[in-house]
């Protein structure tokens, strides 16, 4: 990668963002330097210019001077990061962040640095996480600043640290997890010394807050190659801190080979689920469910007489484990519940057999899946990893048939909006009840009846409700 190519690539990036030149002119006129830095430079050199992203800059100007230079130019300015030397702004719909050169020191206990401003861009770059992120582009001189060999590392696809990995990870242990994320997102290979340090220092990741860990894990999972990132996370011991249930799935295969390696199987399911995604944006919920769908197997493994192995109710145990772990990682309630429900339901299809379900069972399958039905279809199909093509084809044909039945019944009954044949107001009128738990029980009874028997005539639904009420000791008004 020649110097001229480097400049051309970055200038191509900047041509799409006129704010960069505008800012450079303002800073130069005031006697300050301004550099594009970090991921923007890296991605420009990789040719990853598609899509909108924020621009990060670094400068010798102190924060107060940066605020003054932005005043009257930016459409909005914010200083929430000013304690760390960062001032944010928007212009022409573009978000920019400008940070004063840093020369921080870390206390080795938390990841909070003692903020110290630096005087050179080179000094700022050498304190960054990886050499591929430790490059800057001088917006005035139109030159690449690369004091740590980031350009060569980028060309080789190698992930290395500007300082020793021990120093870098000691300053900020989250960088170890970030390494697994870059393996997933960008396909980099970590240098041997980086892997060695990650392995020996994995326990330091416990210093990082769950929110920060979750953010990196989510970026890893939604990368282009999450399997590679996960394998690195497990191999180095980082998973023992982040997701200890993953290495626990590396069960020893019994001497008769009666069951698959659960960890390897889960990675294959993850790959196959990704192949089934239908939208350009990665589906975090589906990917989490695919990775964790068998999380309950280690706790439910039983060796049976005759050499067999069973994992009875591992979907029930797994759903509980998913809730506990994802809550600990501070995932949103919606993500936690959606992933747990997919794990809970992923085995339901196997009771379908050769199509022996009643229409009632099909309705319940759809109703229990609710808004997750499309994801459940993908998870169930991805969960077929047998090498026996005859068996695999039979399973796929059976699921095709189930989907056809769902479509048929849905067309007839509008399954996505299954409700009792009588609403809450009519239940209260017919039974003479005020709002309360009894009305809820009556509503649930009618919904179960609707799932079992399909839509009922109004008079039939009323008769069933009256009969149920009397069985519950509720005497409807005359």
UniProtKB/TrEMBL annotation:
Pfam families: HD, PolyA_pol, PolyA_pol_RNAbd
Cofactor: Mg(2+)
Superkingdom as given in the UniProt entry: Bacteria
GO MF term set: hydrolase activity; metal ion binding; nucleotide binding; nucleotidyltransferase activity; tRNA binding
Domain named HD: residues: 262-372
Keywords, alphabetical: Coiled coil, Hydrolase, Magnesium, Metal-binding, Nucleotide-binding, Nucleotidyltransferase, Transferase, tRNA processing
PROSITE patterns: HD
An example Gene Ontology biological process: tRNA processing
Coiled coil (residue ranges): 385-412
NCBIfam families from the UniProt entry: HDIG, tRNA_CCA_actino
Protein name from the UniProt record: Polynucleotide adenylyltransferase/metal dependent phosphohydrolase
Species name: Saccharothrix espanaensis (strain ATCC 51144 / DSM 44229 / JCM 9112 / NBRC 15066 / NRRL 15764)
């Amino acid at each position: 990668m020649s110097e001229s190519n480097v400049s051309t690539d970055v200038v191509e990036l900047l041509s799409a963002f006129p704010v960069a030149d505008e800012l450079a002119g303002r800073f130069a006129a005031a006697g300050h330097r301004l550099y594009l830095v970090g991921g923007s430079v890296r991605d420009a050199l990789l040719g990853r210019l598609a899509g909108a992203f924020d621009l990060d800059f670094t400068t010798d100007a102190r924060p107060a001077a940066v605020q003054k230079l932005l005043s009257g130019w930016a459409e909005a300015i914010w200083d929430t990061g000013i304690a760390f030397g960062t001032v944010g702004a928007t212009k022409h719909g573009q978000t920019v962040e400008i940070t004063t050169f840093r020369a921080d020191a870390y206390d080795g206990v938390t990841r909070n640095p003692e903020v110290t401003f630096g005087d050179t861009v080179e000094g700022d770059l050498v304190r960054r996480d990886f050499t591929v992120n430790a490059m800057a582009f001088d917006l005035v001189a139109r030159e690449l600043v690369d004091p740590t060999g980031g350009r060569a590392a980028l060309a080789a696809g190698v992930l290395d640290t500007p300082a020793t990995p021990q120093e870098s990870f000691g300053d900020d242990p989250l960088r170890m997890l970030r390494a697994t994320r870059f393996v997933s997102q960008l396909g980099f290979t970590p240098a041997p010394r980086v892997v060695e340090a990650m392995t020996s220092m994995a326990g330091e990741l416990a210093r990082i807050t769950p929110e920060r860990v979750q953010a990196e894990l989510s970026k890893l999972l939604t990368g282009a190659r999450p399997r590679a990132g996960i394998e690195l996370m497990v191999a180095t011991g980082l998973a023992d801190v982040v997701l200890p249930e993953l290495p626990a799935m590396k069960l020893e295969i019994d001497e008769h080979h009666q069951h698959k390696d659960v960890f390897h199987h889960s990675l294959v399911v993850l790959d196959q689920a990704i192949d089934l995604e239908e939208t350009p944006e990665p589906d975090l919920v589906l990917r989490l469910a695919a990775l964790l769908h068998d999380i309950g197997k280690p706790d439910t493994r039983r060796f049976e007489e005759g050499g067999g192995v069973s994992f009875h109710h591992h979907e029930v145990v797994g759903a509980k484990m998913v809730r506990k772990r994802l809550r600990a990682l501070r995932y949103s309630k919606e993500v936690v519940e959606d992933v747990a429900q997919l794990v809970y339901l992923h085995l339901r299809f196997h009771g379908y057999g050769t199509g022996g379900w009643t229409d009632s069972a099909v309705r319940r399958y759809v109703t229990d899946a609710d808004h997750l039905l499309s994801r459940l279809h993908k998870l169930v199909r991805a969960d077929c990893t047998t090498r026996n093509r005859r068996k695999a084809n039979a399973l796929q044909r059976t699921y095709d048939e189930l989907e056809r039945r769902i479509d048929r019944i849905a067309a007839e009954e509008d399954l996505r909006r299954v409700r009792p044949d009588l609403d809450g107001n009519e239940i209260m009128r017919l039974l003479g009840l005020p709002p309360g738990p009894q009305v809820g029980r009556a509503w649930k009874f009618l919904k179960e009846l609707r799932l079992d028997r399909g839509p009922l005539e109004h008079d039939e639904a009323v008769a069933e409700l009256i009969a149920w009420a009397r069985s519950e000791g509720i005497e409807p008004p005359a």
